[in-house]
Write a structure and sequence with these properties.
The chain is of the alpha/beta class and 299 residues long. It has two domains: 140 residues, D-Maltodextrin-Binding Protein, domain 2 (3-Layer(aba) Sandwich); 110 residues, 3-Layer(aba) Sandwich (D-Maltodextrin-Binding Protein, domain 2), CATH 3.40.190.10. It is built from eleven helices and ten strands. The strands form two sheets. Strands 1, 2, 3, 4, 7, 8, 9 and 10 form an eight-stranded mixed beta sheet that branches. Helix 3 packs across helix 10. About 2% of the residues have low confidence.
Length: 299
Amino acid sequence: MPDGLDRRDLLKLAAITAALPACSKIEQKPTLQPPEPAVAVDVSVVRVASVPTAVEGNLLPTLIADFEKRSKLRVVLTPTEGVYDLAREGKVDLAISHYGHKHAEAFVMDGFGEFPRTLFSNQMALVGPPSDPAKIRGLVDAGQAFRRIAETKSPFLVNGIDGVRYLVDILWNAAGRPDKAGWFIDEGQRKDDAMNVASARGAYALWGLTPFLRMDSAAHLKLEPLVLGDPLLQRMLVSIVVRPTKMRGVNAEGAHALEAHLLSPATQAQIREVRYPGAGAVFWVPAGRHNRTGMLPRG
């Protein structure tokens, strides 16, 4: 044993020596990972994904053509129900969908998109047979129309899309919760299938006017749009700019420019004049006014 060290000192020295490797590990600097390579952004192109109704109804193509003339930017427009799937894959700069799209909230809450801006609304329609046994044609109160359908026991077919089913429940409550026996048909059909069944059975039904007109032009349904005027039948659409901090390669500047164009007073006024191909009715309603004033373009 070395001079001046007793057994207790040796134990302390051994403990310090054993701890040295652990200390050296703590002091080691972490290995730096090379930065991810930058993704080139084509600032001359704005990639837009939209639910089909705003494209089929000729609205977005009309407004985008005007934007391209004014801005010199080129817009690539993709109509799809999978708007937010494409956006999460980094293939979209601006997403346009119904406010109640099933993936819109998650896209924003997960940090992928900015706060939605309301742009315009399209039109739901209460359609029915040309003979109109419930005599609802031209009514502006959809609840009153639904009450007449129930009172006359005229067949009503539920279009099983989530948002449409929700609206049917509202109208059923507005009509005083009538007994559904003998007239209310809920067999799970959706979209085109629902319209085909309603046409075959001479039933009333609810669907978006744009897809209804698109289908009717091809299939010649035995149905007509009968009730359109109730604000309950308007379906709000929004724009969401994809965040470049979350998704590489996003042309956020171009997306903001297009969004500002869509919200401008001149464009909002123009929305009222757009017609569905082959139809004379106006069923696009500008909705930019629903945004907070500070978010609206000036001038």
